[in-house]
Fold this protein.
Amino acid sequence: MNAVRFGIDIGGTKTAIVGISPAGEVIVKRVFATEPARGLEDFLTRCKTAYQEALAESGADRPPAAVGVASPGPLDLARGIMYDSPNLHWGDVPLVDRLEQTLETKILLQNDANAAALGEYLFGAGRGSRCLVYVTMSTGIGGGVVVDGRLWAGSSGNAAEFGHLTLVPGGEECGCGLKGCWEAYASGTALARLGRQVTGREVSARDIGRAWSDQAPWADEIIARAARYSGQAVAIIVQSFDPDRLVFGGGVALGLGRRYLDLVLAEAERFCLNFRVRRPHFTLAALGGDSALFGAAALPEANLGIGRY
Ligand SMILES: [Zn+2]
Protein backbone atom coordinates (compact mmCIF):
# COMPACT_ATOMS: atom_id res chain seq x y z
CA MET A 1 0.00 0.00 0.00
CA ASN A 2 1.64 3.19 -1.16
CA ALA A 3 -0.45 6.13 -0.22
CA VAL A 4 -0.27 6.08 3.57
CA ARG A 5 0.00 9.56 5.06
CA PHE A 6 1.50 9.86 8.52
CA GLY A 7 0.73 12.44 11.13
CA ILE A 8 1.91 13.01 14.69
CA ASP A 9 0.06 15.04 17.32
CA ILE A 10 2.22 16.00 20.29
CA GLY A 11 0.14 16.83 23.34
CA GLY A 12 0.99 17.69 26.92
CA THR A 13 -0.40 14.35 28.12
CA LYS A 14 -0.29 11.99 25.16
CA THR A 15 1.23 11.82 21.73
CA ALA A 16 -0.52 10.04 18.86
CA ILE A 17 0.78 8.79 15.52
CA VAL A 18 -1.59 7.88 12.75
CA GLY A 19 -1.30 6.47 9.26
CA ILE A 20 -4.33 7.27 7.11
CA SER A 21 -5.48 6.60 3.56
CA PRO A 22 -6.11 9.54 1.19
CA ALA A 23 -9.80 9.26 2.13
CA GLY A 24 -8.99 9.57 5.81
CA GLU A 25 -9.42 5.95 6.89
CA VAL A 26 -7.19 4.97 9.78
CA ILE A 27 -4.70 2.33 8.73
CA VAL A 28 -2.59 2.38 11.86
CA LYS A 29 -2.63 4.34 15.10
CA ARG A 30 -0.23 4.45 18.03
CA VAL A 31 -0.67 6.45 21.22
CA PHE A 32 1.90 6.89 23.97
CA ALA A 33 2.26 9.04 27.08
CA THR A 34 4.28 12.17 26.24
CA GLU A 35 5.77 12.32 29.75
CA PRO A 36 7.37 15.69 29.04
CA ALA A 37 9.23 15.68 32.38
CA ARG A 38 11.56 13.00 30.95
CA GLY A 39 12.90 15.59 28.53
CA LEU A 40 12.95 16.09 24.78
CA GLU A 41 15.64 13.50 23.97
CA ASP A 42 13.79 10.77 25.83
CA PHE A 43 10.58 11.76 24.05
CA LEU A 44 12.29 11.64 20.65
CA THR A 45 13.57 8.11 21.31
CA ARG A 46 10.08 6.87 22.20
CA CYS A 47 8.59 8.75 19.26
CA LYS A 48 11.02 7.02 16.89
CA THR A 49 10.05 3.58 18.20
CA ALA A 50 6.33 4.32 17.88
CA TYR A 51 6.78 5.76 14.37
CA GLN A 52 8.82 2.79 13.17
CA GLU A 53 6.24 0.36 14.56
CA ALA A 54 3.42 2.30 12.90
CA LEU A 55 5.34 2.38 9.61
CA ALA A 56 5.93 -1.39 9.69
CA GLU A 57 2.33 -2.14 10.63
CA SER A 58 0.91 0.13 7.92
CA GLY A 59 2.22 -2.09 5.14
CA ALA A 60 3.59 0.95 3.30
CA ASP A 61 6.27 -0.25 0.87
CA ARG A 62 8.48 2.75 1.58
CA PRO A 63 8.66 5.50 4.21
CA PRO A 64 6.66 8.64 3.38
CA ALA A 65 8.49 11.60 1.84
CA ALA A 66 7.29 13.78 4.70
CA VAL A 67 5.45 13.49 8.00
CA GLY A 68 3.13 16.15 9.38
CA VAL A 69 3.44 17.16 13.01
CA ALA A 70 0.96 19.11 15.13
CA SER A 71 2.30 20.57 18.34
CA PRO A 72 1.38 23.14 20.94
CA GLY A 73 2.68 26.64 20.30
CA PRO A 74 4.07 29.12 20.27
CA LEU A 75 5.94 28.09 17.12
CA ASP A 76 8.19 29.81 14.62
CA LEU A 77 7.25 27.86 11.52
CA ALA A 78 9.82 29.51 9.27
CA ARG A 79 12.65 28.39 11.57
CA GLY A 80 11.03 25.19 12.82
CA ILE A 81 11.26 26.22 16.45
CA MET A 82 8.89 25.42 19.28
CA TYR A 83 9.19 28.06 21.98
CA ASP A 84 8.95 27.07 25.63
CA SER A 85 5.55 25.44 25.68
CA PRO A 86 3.70 25.79 28.99
CA ASN A 87 2.60 22.13 28.93
CA LEU A 88 5.93 20.62 27.90
CA HIS A 89 8.65 22.74 29.53
CA TRP A 90 11.30 21.81 26.98
CA GLY A 91 12.49 25.38 26.56
CA ASP A 92 13.00 26.76 23.04
CA VAL A 93 13.77 23.75 20.85
CA PRO A 94 14.51 23.29 17.13
CA LEU A 95 11.70 20.77 16.92
CA VAL A 96 11.71 20.32 13.14
CA ASP A 97 15.47 19.64 12.95
CA ARG A 98 15.40 17.26 15.90
CA LEU A 99 12.43 15.31 14.52
CA GLU A 100 13.95 15.18 11.04
CA GLN A 101 17.18 13.75 12.46
CA THR A 102 15.33 11.26 14.64
CA LEU A 103 12.67 10.03 12.22
CA GLU A 104 14.91 10.39 9.15
CA THR A 105 12.21 12.09 7.11
CA LYS A 106 11.11 15.61 6.24
CA ILE A 107 8.86 17.15 8.89
CA LEU A 108 6.06 19.62 8.26
CA LEU A 109 5.15 21.37 11.49
CA GLN A 110 1.95 23.21 12.32
CA ASN A 111 0.37 24.37 15.56
CA ASP A 112 -2.24 21.98 16.87
CA ALA A 113 -5.27 24.25 16.46
CA ASN A 114 -4.39 25.02 12.83
CA ALA A 115 -3.84 21.31 12.16
CA ALA A 116 -7.21 20.57 13.78
CA ALA A 117 -8.91 23.09 11.48
CA LEU A 118 -7.38 21.33 8.47
CA GLY A 119 -8.37 17.91 9.85
CA GLU A 120 -12.00 18.93 10.31
CA TYR A 121 -12.05 20.63 6.91
CA LEU A 122 -10.76 17.57 5.06
CA PHE A 123 -12.23 14.68 7.04
CA GLY A 124 -14.70 15.97 9.63
CA ALA A 125 -17.42 18.53 10.24
CA GLY A 126 -15.91 21.02 7.78
CA ARG A 127 -16.18 18.89 4.66
CA GLY A 128 -17.64 20.83 1.76
CA SER A 129 -17.11 24.19 3.45
CA ARG A 130 -15.54 27.13 1.58
CA CYS A 131 -14.50 29.24 4.53
CA LEU A 132 -14.14 27.29 7.73
CA VAL A 133 -13.26 28.63 11.15
CA TYR A 134 -12.36 26.09 13.81
CA VAL A 135 -12.37 27.04 17.48
CA THR A 136 -10.90 24.81 20.14
CA MET A 137 -12.03 25.27 23.72
CA SER A 138 -10.00 23.18 26.11
CA THR A 139 -7.36 24.07 28.72
CA GLY A 140 -6.87 27.16 26.56
CA ILE A 141 -8.73 28.56 23.55
CA GLY A 142 -7.30 28.55 20.03
CA GLY A 143 -8.38 28.27 16.46
CA GLY A 144 -7.64 27.81 12.81
CA VAL A 145 -8.97 29.09 9.51
CA VAL A 146 -9.24 27.28 6.18
CA VAL A 147 -10.13 29.36 3.13
CA ASP A 148 -10.76 27.80 -0.29
CA GLY A 149 -8.98 24.64 0.75
CA ARG A 150 -5.94 26.35 2.21
CA LEU A 151 -5.00 26.73 5.80
CA TRP A 152 -4.59 30.41 6.61
CA ALA A 153 -1.64 30.29 8.97
CA GLY A 154 -0.75 33.97 8.72
CA SER A 155 2.62 35.52 8.00
CA SER A 156 4.34 33.85 10.96
CA GLY A 157 2.07 30.88 11.52
CA ASN A 158 0.20 32.43 14.42
CA ALA A 159 -3.09 33.39 12.78
CA ALA A 160 -6.39 32.61 14.50
CA GLU A 161 -5.08 32.81 18.07
CA PHE A 162 -8.61 33.67 19.12
CA GLY A 163 -8.09 32.88 22.79
CA HIS A 164 -6.17 36.11 23.23
CA LEU A 165 -8.70 38.48 21.72
CA THR A 166 -9.18 41.15 24.37
CA LEU A 167 -12.82 41.15 25.43
CA VAL A 168 -12.45 43.14 28.63
CA PRO A 169 -9.72 45.80 28.74
CA GLY A 170 -7.97 45.48 32.10
CA GLY A 171 -10.05 42.39 32.91
CA GLU A 172 -9.16 38.95 34.29
CA GLU A 173 -5.52 37.97 34.09
CA CYS A 174 -4.74 35.50 31.31
CA GLY A 175 -2.04 32.82 31.27
CA CYS A 176 -0.36 34.78 28.44
CA GLY A 177 0.36 37.74 30.72
CA LEU A 178 -2.26 40.04 29.20
CA LYS A 179 -5.59 40.93 30.75
CA GLY A 180 -9.15 40.38 29.65
CA CYS A 181 -8.50 37.72 26.98
CA TRP A 182 -11.37 35.43 25.93
CA GLU A 183 -9.34 32.52 27.30
CA ALA A 184 -9.42 34.08 30.77
CA TYR A 185 -13.23 33.81 30.75
CA ALA A 186 -14.21 30.65 28.92
CA SER A 187 -11.33 28.13 28.79
CA GLY A 188 -11.26 25.04 30.98
CA THR A 189 -8.73 26.83 33.19
CA ALA A 190 -11.03 29.85 33.54
CA LEU A 191 -14.07 27.67 34.30
CA ALA A 192 -12.14 25.84 37.02
CA ARG A 193 -10.99 29.14 38.54
CA LEU A 194 -14.51 30.50 38.53
CA GLY A 195 -15.80 27.24 39.97
CA ARG A 196 -13.33 27.58 42.84
CA GLN A 197 -14.46 31.16 43.50
CA VAL A 198 -18.15 30.26 43.45
CA THR A 199 -18.06 26.97 45.39
CA GLY A 200 -15.02 27.54 47.61
CA ARG A 201 -13.61 24.14 46.60
CA GLU A 202 -11.55 22.60 43.79
CA VAL A 203 -13.73 21.77 40.78
CA SER A 204 -12.67 20.90 37.25
CA ALA A 205 -14.34 22.10 34.06
CA ARG A 206 -15.74 18.57 33.77
CA ASP A 207 -17.27 18.77 37.28
CA ILE A 208 -18.90 22.05 36.31
CA GLY A 209 -20.26 20.49 33.12
CA ARG A 210 -21.73 17.62 35.08
CA ALA A 211 -23.30 19.95 37.65
CA TRP A 212 -24.69 22.06 34.80
CA SER A 213 -26.34 18.96 33.28
CA ASP A 214 -27.84 18.29 36.72
CA GLN A 215 -29.16 21.86 36.71
CA ALA A 216 -27.16 23.07 39.73
CA PRO A 217 -27.75 26.85 39.91
CA TRP A 218 -24.09 27.63 40.75
CA ALA A 219 -22.93 25.81 37.61
CA ASP A 220 -25.60 27.54 35.57
CA GLU A 221 -24.19 30.90 36.60
CA ILE A 222 -20.65 29.93 35.57
CA ILE A 223 -21.69 28.49 32.24
CA ALA A 224 -23.91 31.47 31.42
CA ARG A 225 -21.00 33.82 32.06
CA ALA A 226 -18.61 31.81 29.88
CA ALA A 227 -21.24 31.66 27.13
CA ARG A 228 -21.72 35.42 27.27
CA TYR A 229 -18.05 36.12 26.63
CA SER A 230 -17.83 33.34 24.07
CA GLY A 231 -20.75 34.84 22.19
CA GLN A 232 -18.91 38.15 22.05
CA ALA A 233 -15.79 36.43 20.67
CA VAL A 234 -17.75 34.36 18.16
CA ALA A 235 -19.37 37.55 16.87
CA ILE A 236 -15.90 39.08 16.32
CA ILE A 237 -14.79 35.93 14.49
CA VAL A 238 -17.87 35.90 12.25
CA GLN A 239 -17.49 39.62 11.49
CA SER A 240 -13.81 39.08 10.64
CA PHE A 241 -13.98 35.98 8.46
CA ASP A 242 -17.60 35.66 7.28
CA PRO A 243 -17.25 31.86 7.45
CA ASP A 244 -19.85 29.49 6.06
CA ARG A 245 -19.02 27.06 8.83
CA LEU A 246 -17.80 27.37 12.41
CA VAL A 247 -16.63 24.15 14.04
CA PHE A 248 -16.10 23.90 17.80
CA GLY A 249 -13.76 21.29 19.24
CA GLY A 250 -11.64 20.72 22.33
CA GLY A 251 -12.55 19.05 25.62
CA VAL A 252 -14.67 21.90 26.99
CA ALA A 253 -16.78 22.43 23.85
CA LEU A 254 -17.22 18.72 23.20
CA GLY A 255 -17.89 18.00 26.89
CA LEU A 256 -20.53 20.73 27.27
CA GLY A 257 -21.95 19.86 23.88
CA ARG A 258 -24.68 21.27 21.67
CA ARG A 259 -26.64 22.90 24.51
CA TYR A 260 -23.64 25.08 25.36
CA LEU A 261 -23.04 25.89 21.71
CA ASP A 262 -26.64 27.09 21.41
CA LEU A 263 -26.16 29.35 24.45
CA VAL A 264 -23.03 30.83 22.87
CA LEU A 265 -24.87 31.44 19.61
CA ALA A 266 -27.78 33.13 21.34
CA GLU A 267 -25.25 35.51 22.90
CA ALA A 268 -23.41 36.03 19.60
CA GLU A 269 -26.71 37.02 18.04
CA ARG A 270 -26.69 40.18 20.17
CA PHE A 271 -23.34 41.36 18.79
CA CYS A 272 -23.15 40.10 15.24
CA LEU A 273 -24.23 42.26 12.35
CA ASN A 274 -23.35 39.61 9.77
CA PHE A 275 -26.02 37.30 11.17
CA ARG A 276 -28.59 39.59 9.58
CA VAL A 277 -27.17 38.71 6.17
CA ARG A 278 -26.19 35.12 6.66
CA ARG A 279 -25.78 32.79 9.60
CA PRO A 280 -22.91 30.37 9.27
CA HIS A 281 -23.49 26.74 10.09
CA PHE A 282 -22.36 26.07 13.67
CA THR A 283 -21.35 22.58 14.61
CA LEU A 284 -19.25 20.47 16.95
CA ALA A 285 -16.05 18.81 15.68
CA ALA A 286 -16.69 15.40 14.15
CA LEU A 287 -13.26 13.89 14.79
CA GLY A 288 -13.39 14.28 18.58
CA GLY A 289 -9.90 14.47 20.04
CA ASP A 290 -8.28 13.47 16.73
CA SER A 291 -8.90 16.61 14.64
CA ALA A 292 -5.28 17.78 14.92
CA LEU A 293 -3.91 14.28 14.33
CA PHE A 294 -5.81 13.92 11.03
CA GLY A 295 -4.82 17.44 10.04
CA ALA A 296 -1.17 16.63 10.75
CA ALA A 297 -1.35 13.64 8.42
CA ALA A 298 -2.68 15.91 5.67
CA LEU A 299 0.02 18.58 6.11
CA PRO A 300 2.48 17.15 3.57
CA GLU A 301 -0.11 17.64 0.85
CA ALA A 302 -1.59 20.89 2.09
CA ASN A 303 -0.20 23.92 0.36
CA LEU A 304 0.32 26.39 3.17
CA GLY A 305 2.67 28.77 1.42
CA ILE A 306 4.58 29.44 4.62
CA GLY A 307 7.69 28.25 6.37
CA ARG A 308 10.04 25.56 5.23
CA TYR A 309 7.93 23.80 2.65
ZN1 LIG B 1 -4.26 35.87 26.79
Q: What stands out?
A: Residues 164, 174, 176, 178, 181, 183 surround zinc ion (CB under 6 Å). The longest helix spans residues 217-241. The chain is about 40% helix and 20% strand. The CA atoms of residues 245 and 281 lie 5 Å apart.
